[in-house]
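Reference record
================
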Amino acid sequence: MGAGHAHKLYRHGHSPVHGLPPHTKLAAAFAFVVVVVSTPREAVWAFGLYAVLLAGVAWAARVPPGFLLKRLLIEVPFVAFAVLLPFVAEGERVEVLGMSLSVSGLWGAWNVLAKGTLGVATSVLLAATTELRELLLGLQRLRLPPLLVQIASFMIRYGDVITDEMRRMRIARESRGFEARGIRHWGVLAKSAGALFIRSYERGERVHLAMVSRGYAGSMPVIDEVTASRAQWSYAFALPVAALVVCLLGWTL
């Protein structure tokens, strides 16, 4: 998979959660999200317990609340959609603070907010405790199709390359006195986008030829063999198992 590749969501640490093999964390996170989504929306207390479980994971991983809350802002568009549901949904209406709101819309908004927030928080904690390279190795270990793993690997690496190329082009434009202030400057920006596309395409061809010349035949060599013990699997699945108990209580109570 190549050398390590740090990302902004990752928080370096030596906690027990950081030390778990990546494929155990991926499987546990996926199982937890499935359990959360399967919980009836009427079991409001269950989602509170899920939040407590995630807070326990964050504490064990030594991830500060501010770090987690700041990265939860990515779900703001979904929050805006959920806020609109009570106003646009049909069905039985109820008066809240002088406003006529749909009962089904209120439940739908709660469902989106609760499950969406817990899902995003799970993803943020996974990214905060697992490096990108380890995530790719974990996906490989979980028998994800090799082609998909390679595509994800190249996307991660060349995403940064293209971003850096965009930054250099912006600096070159500004050093020549250019500053986009209105629609009349869109032509220059469009030409820059076209040049970026051509450079990226040519770079991709050169990289592919270099890989083929070094023996690439459609599959990447496995550099690190990641394994996990029963204890590590048990530790990782403590979260989804506890969540499953809460979910079953939510359906029965």
User: Anything to note?
Assistant: The longest helix spans residues 146-175. The chain has ten helices and two strands.
